[in-house]
């Protein structure tokens, strides 16, 4: 819209007495208490002999959108300055972002100017809907935003202020205020901020704690909390009873015999498989991994993929698995912390199940199950009588025992229909991998990774299977091509990207076009 | 207003002479109404003027003391029609609504009111919902002022100016027997500032007094031949009177050096942005002191010809700063100058953008372009070109996820659209027309439902043309909220569908409030409101309109039931419109009401149950199908740290209110069994505790036996 090639970078000029207008914009996600924050800032300014004005675009009652709050302040010289009502590109002195991507948005909108803007941003993420609904991992790239902050801002104060607030038993607004105060971007003393918080009257102590912690971090007198990356999360260790120790040791020895690069993943896989079924199943898993290892060579990318995805393939999600997880001793305590239950409180738990005819029959012995599935009449009967959501209270003995019975079938799992069909599927897949390994290990590695497409239950699972099948269908077209592996990866990404699989159709069409 | 108290604001309304009022612009206007002896106030809530309605609704006692009547009007048309009380009686009245949408609805009444004219000051406070943060189509209210010959004020956006303008507007209205529109923008309404209050005034004549002494003057009634006289009167009497008032009372302000060769004609509302731009160009200080000659129009319609001509006298060029389009003011001035044979160069649109909000940088660029062309000597050299090394800032447009507004945590409307999604999976896509209200967020991801929105209460009406020839074909689905339903949906949408034998499906989303505008009570609200009559059944109203096929769902979270009911509506052989009333309380307001109550009960040692949902992350496979049917802020994704997993899994954070949608959706869509509902019982009964610990012991024993025999994660 600009009437000229480049917008003018025009700075505000001060008043006769050298008094300057300070502009501050806060970008918040609705419901984060941006209003409270602005009121505090205005109060602090006025308490320090400044004139201040705040505006916001609060919009309607809905809370998930991005909201902008804007404050201008100026040392009081007896006259009312003409304050602007909204932040202007290239004219913001202090930018507060209560979430990382909102910080990025501020930069993109030109509210963060080199050599001028102090940027105060909380680095935690609140995923937007578009990031959540991807069947795979749709989350935006945080490093790019953090990088941009460094480039765009004059001075950056960025750390996980949400976490600081939580640890202080408070919400983010006081820790944002603390970061602002600690940054020294405003010429106001610490106690004047704290006085305002005290005056606000609600949750004062917790607010002051959050404020203080954030202040010290921003001022550099305390280290910022290191966000625990997934890699740092300690993995649960496998607890092996005395009677099984010897067999387990034997399996561990087989892992130790694998090429070094594969060992970590293989051990994780082995533990998962054993935990899922039993020691023998672990042996079955290692048989597969070892076959690939034998055909692979450094850097063993196919071997690592095998260690990862064979475990995934063997540990398919069935009723037994779900019942097992929901009846484990560790589970109740985990839920307790998850929903924060205190000792003097009682926890009631309701599980949501909806077993359909398929799940029911596939949990039967193979032959019986197959016979039942061939009976359309029975299926109709089931649909009429039993095909409905079931709420099971696992805090009650009755409900718990129901799941307990199902999970008790675990030793017999190998004889169930579901296992037979799963194994048929796994064998076909693995056979393809073995066939590819000698002449195209790269493609084989990608084919192994394709098992990522199979996940979920009932319809979701079915959709996963069909995506998997369609991607696998391309193997014959890609075999022996230089870029075969690369294309296989692209096909998988396309399949993960969207639900309906339209992107996959497109990708497959391209592959066909050059394959024929 | 059911679940929110405005006691704090109401207290401000009671402030007297000399006290310093501090608060939002819209609240300052509310106070100013009382200071100017207003006799009655009405309006329809909506951003950015909701606050005025909400506060007055809570200020009954104050209003009663003053003898002021306040009404929550059924619509903007109702509100404007209410101003008829000022036609024959010398009573000041004010109504308010969101514009331009509200003025569209009000325009019938506004035309009639404008034709007959008023005796008492009649003020329409329009919240101009234009520019960033607006939720409606971008149009100007100005056209209504021109066509109906009513006047329009647009004060400078600071509290003292806004408050003064309220008084001026009433006087202008009375001096010219014409209703006056007081236009305030989003940011003027939400700006926090101070002004010195004066005492509230009792209206010299109350509406009750008027009723006791009925008056009637035939020549004020809109009926030929009076209407012809009204038109003449507008041109020969009211317009000159208004222009005289504006001139003599100095409504429009002059700043800067009158001898300047160039000048700016500025809408009052844009004054601050202009001054800031001038300041950034070194042409004004932070207090607005400047050499640039400025005419600030606090009254933007009518313009005063002599004032404009006088301002332009001896100038080389004049820039009209007029936000929005068409550029009515610039056109009038151009017309005026041409007729007067002036040669001054008129600038406006062109130097400034045709459309869109005039934000800071836009104004800087526009003024700079004007100055370069007509007064380069005024442009400081260092400003005439980009004066800072441009730093290459990485482009994040591809990285940043959009964050459109959506349904709140626990919103009862979410399951309705989840169910609609499921129905479409079964029966295929349908034409869906949406309405105004929170439910409009269905057009956003993850639901992506809804093709058009044609106005408040007009959802079903906007689907009326789309119907199958013999009623055997596909049916359309249309949504309307309880707010829109009572606003005019009952007649325009439901009545219309009945009368025209429509076969389409109508879903009325009933959340107990006008939720999107802040949770005001309406006819069908469940709360007992001391000043309003509530508890009126939408189902009965619909039946009263003659709808035969009506289904009431009193718990929208029952996704399966909603899905099955909608499927039935789309497939039933029965003729006529199929109406589904889906009712559950707005979670935002429900939390406002229940949280304090529960906290209190818990303190008193009473048994309190807090529901919450959770996810067993070992069971979740990271497909996120649940989120494609939810989009709840509290349902998000996180990493497990398990090297065997590629995708983040679902988790539910502390903000969950346990509405049940997650479980119901997982059930109805047969997703996965990873969701669990946890109910945390505070102050459980002794029996409950005993039972719980007994069960825990038995379970622990069972688990112990199994764990001893298997290798498993600890």
UniProtKB/TrEMBL annotation, chain A:
Keyword Oxidoreductase: yes
Protein name: Indolepyruvate oxidoreductase subunit beta family protein
Keyword vocabulary terms for this entry: Oxidoreductase
Pyruvate/ketoisovalerate oxidoreductase catalytic domain sequence ranges: 30-216
Residues in DUF6537 domain copies: 263-472
InterPro entries reported in the protein's UniProt record: DUF6537, IorB_Oxidoreductase, Pyrv/ketoisovalerate_OxRed_cat, Pyrv_flavodox_OxRed_cen
From TrEMBL, chain B:
Pfam families: TPP_enzyme_C (PF02775)
Database matches in CDD domains: TPP_IOR_alpha
Lineage: superkingdom: Bacteria
Coiled-coil blocks: none
Domain Thiamine pyrophosphate enzyme TPP-binding: 437-581
Keywords associated with the record: Metal-binding
Protein name: Thiamine pyrophosphate-dependent enzyme
Membrane-spanning intervals of the chain: none
UniProt cross-references to Gene3D superfamilies, sorted A to Z: 3.40.50.970
């Amino acid at each position: 819209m600009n009437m000229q090639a480049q917008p003018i970078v025009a700075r505000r000029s001060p008043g006769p007495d050298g008094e300057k207008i300070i502009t501050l914009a806060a970008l918040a996600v609705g419901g984060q208490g941006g209003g409270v924050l602005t009121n505090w800032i205005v109060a602090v300014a006025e308490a320090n002999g400044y004139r201040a004005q705040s505006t916001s675009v609060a919009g309607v009652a809905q809370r998930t959108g991005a909201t902008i709050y804007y404050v201008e302040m100026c040392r009081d010289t007896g006259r009312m300055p003409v304050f602007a009502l909204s932040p202007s590109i290239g004219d913001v002195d202090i930018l507060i972002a209560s979430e990382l991507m909102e910080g990025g948005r501020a930069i993109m909108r030109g509210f963060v100017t080199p050599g001028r803007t102090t940027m105060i941003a909380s680095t935690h993420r609140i995923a937007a809907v578009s990031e959540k609904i991807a069947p795979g991992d749709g989350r935006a790239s945080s490093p790019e935003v953090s990088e941009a902050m460094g480039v765009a801002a004059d001075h950056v104060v960025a750390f996980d202020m949400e976490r600081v607030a939580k640890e202080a038993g408070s919400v983010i607004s006081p820790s944002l205020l603390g970061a602002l105060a600690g940054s020294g971007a405003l010429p106001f003393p610490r106690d004047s901020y704290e006085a305002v918080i005290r005056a606000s009257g609600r949750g004062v102590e917790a607010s002051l704690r959050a404020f203080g912690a954030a202040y010290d971090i921003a001022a550099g007198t305390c280290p910022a909390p290191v966000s625990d990356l997934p890699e740092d999360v300690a993995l649960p260790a496998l607890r092996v009873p005395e009677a099984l120790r010897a067999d387990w040791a034997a399996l561990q020895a087989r892992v130790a015999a694998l090429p070094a690069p594969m060992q970590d993943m293989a051990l994780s896989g082995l533990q998962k498989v054993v935990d899922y079924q039993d020691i023998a199943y672990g042996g079955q898993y290692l048989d597969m991994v070892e076959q690939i290892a034998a055909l692979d060579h450094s850097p063993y990318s196919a071997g690592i993929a095998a260690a990862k995805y064979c475990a995934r393939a063997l540990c398919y999600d069935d009723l037994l698995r779900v019942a097992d997880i929901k009846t484990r001793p560790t589970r109740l305590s985990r839920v307790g912390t998850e929903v924060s239950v205190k000792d003097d409180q009682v926890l009631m738990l309701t599980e949501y199940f909806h077993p359909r005819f398929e799940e029911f029959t596939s949990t039967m012995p193979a032959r019986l199950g197959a016979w039942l599935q061939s009976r359309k009449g029975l299926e109709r009967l089931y649909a009429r009588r039993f095909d409905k959501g079931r709420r099971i209270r696992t805090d009650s003995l009755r409900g718990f025992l129901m799941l307990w019975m199902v999970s008790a079938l675990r030793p017999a799992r190998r004889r169930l229909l579901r296992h037979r069909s799963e194994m048929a599927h796994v064998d076909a897949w693995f056979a393809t991998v073995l066939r590819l390994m000698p002449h195209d290990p790269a493609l084989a590695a990608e084919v192994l990774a394709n098992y990522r497409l199979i996940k979920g239950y009932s319809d979701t699972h079915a959709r996963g299977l069909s995506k998997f099948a369609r991607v696998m269908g391309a193997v014959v077209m890609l075999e022996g091509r230089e870029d075969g592996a690369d294309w296989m990866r692209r096909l998988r990404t396309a399949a993960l990207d969207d639900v309906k699989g339209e992107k996959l159709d497109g990708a497959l069409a391209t592959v066909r076009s050059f394959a024929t | 207003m059911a679940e929110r108290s405005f006691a704090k604001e109401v207290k401000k309304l009671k402030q007297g002479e000399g006290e310093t009022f501090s608060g939002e612009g819209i609240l300052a206007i509310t106070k100013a109404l009382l200071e100017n002896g207003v006799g009655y106030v009405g309006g329809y809530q909506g951003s950015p003027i909701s606050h005025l309605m909400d506060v007055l609704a809570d200020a009954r006692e104050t209003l009663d003391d003053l003898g002021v009547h306040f009404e929550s009007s059924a619509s903007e048309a109702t509100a404007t029609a209410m101003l008829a009380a000022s036609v024959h009686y010398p009573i000041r009245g004010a109504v308010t609504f969101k514009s331009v949408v509200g003025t569209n609805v009000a325009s019938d009444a506004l035309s009639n009111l404008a034709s007959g004219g008023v005796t008492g000051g009649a003020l329409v406070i329009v919240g101009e919902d234009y520019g960033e943060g607006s939720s409606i189509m971008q149009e100007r209210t100005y056209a209504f002022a021109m066509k109906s010959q009513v006047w329009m004020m647009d004060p400078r956006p600071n509290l003292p100016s806004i408050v003064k303008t309220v008084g001026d507007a009433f006087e202008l209205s009375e001096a010219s027997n014409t209703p006056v529109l007081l236009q305030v923008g989003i940011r003027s309404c939400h700006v926090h500032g101070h002004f010195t209050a004066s005492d509230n005034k009792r209206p010299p004549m109350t509406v009750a007094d008027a009723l006791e002494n009925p008056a009637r003057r035939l020549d004020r009634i809109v009926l030929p031949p009076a209407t012809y006289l009204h038109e003449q009167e507008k041109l020969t009497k009211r317009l000159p009177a208004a222009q005289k008032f504006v001139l003599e009372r100095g409504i429009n302000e002059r700043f800067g050096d009158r001898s300047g060769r160039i000048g700016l004609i500025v809408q009052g509302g844009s004054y601050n942005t202009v001054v800031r731009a001038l300041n950034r160009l070194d042409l004004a200080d932070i207090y607005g002191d400047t050499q640039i000659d400025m005419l600030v129009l606090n009254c933007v319609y009518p313009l005063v010809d002599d004032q404009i001509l006088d301002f332009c006298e001896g100038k080389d060029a004049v820039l009209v700063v007029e936000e929005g389009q068409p550029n009515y003011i610039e056109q009038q001035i151009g017309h005026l100058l041409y007729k007067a044979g002036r040669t001054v160069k008129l600038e406006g649109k062109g130097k400034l953008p045709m459309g869109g909000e005039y934000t800071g940088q836009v104004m800087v660029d526009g003024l700079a372009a004007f100055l370069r062309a007509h007064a380069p000597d005024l442009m400081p050299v260092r400003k005439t070109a980009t004066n800072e090394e441009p730093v290459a800032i990485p482009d994040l447009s591809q990285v940043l996820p959009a964050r459109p507004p959506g349904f709140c945590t626990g919103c009862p409307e979410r399951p309705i659209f989840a169910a609609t999604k499921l129905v479409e999976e079964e029966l295929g896509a349908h034409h869906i027309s949406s309405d105004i209200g929170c439910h409009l967020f269905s057009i956003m991801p993850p639901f992506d439902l809804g093709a058009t929105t044609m106005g408040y209460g007009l959802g079903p009406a906007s689907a009326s043309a789309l119907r199958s020839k013999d009623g055997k074909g596909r049916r359309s689905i249309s949504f309307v909220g309880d707010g829109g339903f009572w606003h005019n949906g009952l007649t325009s949408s439901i009545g219309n569908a009945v009368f025209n034998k429509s076969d389409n499906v109508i879903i009325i989303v009933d959340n107990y409030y006008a939720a999107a505008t802040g949770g005001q009570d309406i006819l069908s609200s469940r709360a007992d409101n001391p000043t309003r009559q509530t508890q009126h059944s939408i189902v009965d109203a619909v039946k009263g309109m003659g709808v035969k096929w009506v289904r009431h769902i009193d718990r929208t979270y029952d996704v399966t039931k909603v899905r099955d009911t909608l499927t039935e509506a789309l497939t039933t052989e029965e003729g006529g419109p199929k109406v589904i009333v889906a009712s559950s309380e707005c979670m935002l307001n429900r939390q406002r009401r229940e949280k304090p109550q529960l906290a209190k009960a818990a303190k008193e040692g009473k048994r309190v149950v807090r529901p919450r949902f959770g996810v067993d992350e070992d069971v979740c496979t990271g497909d996120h199908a649940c989120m494609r049917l939810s989009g709840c802020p509290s349902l998000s994704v996180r990493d497990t740290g398990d090297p065997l997993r590629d995708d983040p899994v679902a988790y539910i954070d502390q903000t969950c209110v346990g509405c049940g949608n997650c479980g119901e959706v997982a059930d109805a869509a047969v997703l996965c069994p990873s969701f669990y509902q946890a109910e945390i019982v505070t102050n459980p009964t002794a029996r409950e505790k005993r039972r719980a610990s007994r069960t825990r012991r038995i379970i622990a024993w069972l688990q112990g036996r199994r764990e001893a025999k298997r290798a498993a994660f600890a």
